[in-house]
Amino acid sequence: MSDVIKRIVDDSFQMEEAANAENSYAGQTTEGLEISELSKKGYQYLKENKINNAVECFSSILAVDENNNYALVGMGDATRKRGSFRDAVNYYQRCLVHHPGNNYALFGLADCYKALNQYHKAIEIWEQYLVHDDKNITVLTRVADAYRKVRDFKHSKAVYQRVLDMEEQNPYAIIGLGHLHYDFKEYREALFYWGKMLEANRENVDIRVLTSIGNCHRKLKTFEEGIVYFEKALNRDLYNFYALFGLADCYRGMNQQDKSLEYWNRILDQDPRNKVILTRAGDAYRNLNNYEKAVEYYQRALNIEFDTYAVLGLAVVAKALGKYDEAIESLGRLIQQDARNYRLYLELADCRLKKGEKQKAVEVLEEFQRLGIRNVNIQEMLEKLRS
Fold first, then answer.
1. How many CB atoms lie within 10 A of CB 266?
2. Cβ distance 134 to 150 under 8 Å?
3. Of 342, 335, 281, nearest in space to 313 by CA
4. CB 164, CB 140: distance < 8 Å
5. How many CA atoms lie within 13 A of 347 on its CB side?
6. Cβ(156)–Cβ(174) under 8 Å?
């Protein structure tokens, strides 16, 4: 859910809670009316994002009525808005102890657990909420999102479908289904849902829909189609990381290294210490046989932090320059740290071959096979050497 929509939802809940608070104190004592007024003010301050003022109102209520459900929920909402999710949890739980089934406390508590990445707890609380209100689309989409986060494909899809059964074009369910299928590497199915979003909002489609469609094509290796969507996204935002990365990776997949470099370097203009991008750019320079530049970028990455692929890149450059012993030494150290990375064995075996050490190359590949991992590339090279 976008931040704007989330804020609207929160505000609507707070306005409803404020109205309930006002109604509940109608006809009460002077003290009750004062509490009602404070509660009403507190929720208005929350709506205006005046958190300190809201806290002051709710604290005044709790000073005279420590178990007041409106004040406890209000304090929960206020601390949640501050990002103090654990404190907010305490307020919502206090409310639920004295007022079991309070929908507003359940809603806030579940949102806190979601923010704390405790998705199983969030699901449990939202399911409690749905017992009282099983048609609440906002809650249903959040439940589906949470199931997606814990990689429960079946339940996530079922809940998104419940939403679509009630509201056929609900954008959050459609977007969620796109993410769900993408997360499970079902890229064509993801494209179907992202395509529905594009059709519904062709004139003003969210840039994230464009980059998501581009990413599906990138994963499917239909790079030329991906480029179309990443370029549309870049026309909206010249500095969008996902569009720049997508274009660079598509051109890399098409072996157009010079074009990929243009976009890797545009990312580095904004984020010069991104070691992943430095390594990708180093790879592009290496594939263009510009070894001096490649080494420069790999070293820049390593100056930030150790990176297996930067060291691998340097080893491949050394191999290309005929420095086989240097490459063998580097690759041997990498295998000690990352024994299951098949590419290291392929490069090491190739170095042995280039030194005329065919039997040692076979032994390198057999060492990988003894790990019990099946890899087509390793098997093919081994069969070729044995034949």
1. 19
2. no
3. 281
4. no
5. 27
6. no
H or E segment and range at residue 111: helix 103-115
The C-alpha atoms of residue 316 and residue 347 are separated, in whole angstroms, by 7
d(CA 242, CA 43): 38
Rg, the chain, Cα only: 28
Q: How far apart are CA 42 and CA 74, in angstroms?
A: 7
Name the pTM for this structure: 0.81
Give the number of other CB atoms < 10 A from CB of residue 58.
29
Quickly state the pLDDT bin for 173 (edges 50, 70, 90): very high
Residues 60, 251: Cα–Cα separation, whole Å: 62
Separation between Cα atoms, residue 122 and residue 152, nearest integer Å? 14
Question: Residue 225 burial by CB count (10 A; 0-12/13-18/19+): exposed, middle or buried?
Answer: middle
Q: Distance between CA 333 and CA 184 in Å, rounded? A: 34
Distance between CA atoms of residues 343 and 284, nearest Å: 17
pLDDT tens-digit map of 225-276: 999 999 999 999 999 999 999 999 999 999 999 999 999 999 999 999 999 9
The position carrying tokens 């979003």 is 197
Contacts 24+ apart (CB under 8 A), 27-30: none
- Mean pLDDT within 102-113: 93
Which DSSP letter does residue 78 get?
A: H
- b/e burial code for range 183-217 (CB count within 10 A of at least 16 → b): eeeebebbbebbebbbeeeeeebbbbbbbbbbbbb
| Domains of the chain and any CATH numbers | 1-133 (1.25.40.10), 135-205 (1.25.40.10)
Cα gap 162→142, rounded to integer Å: 12
Tens digits of per-residue pLDDT, 123-155? Answer: 999 998 898 889 999 999 999 999 999 999 999
List, in sequence order, every beta strand (DSSP E) within 310-374: none
Compute CA distances 94 → 107, 185, 318, whole Å: 14, 42, 64
Measured between its terminal Cα atoms, the distance across the chain in Å is 57
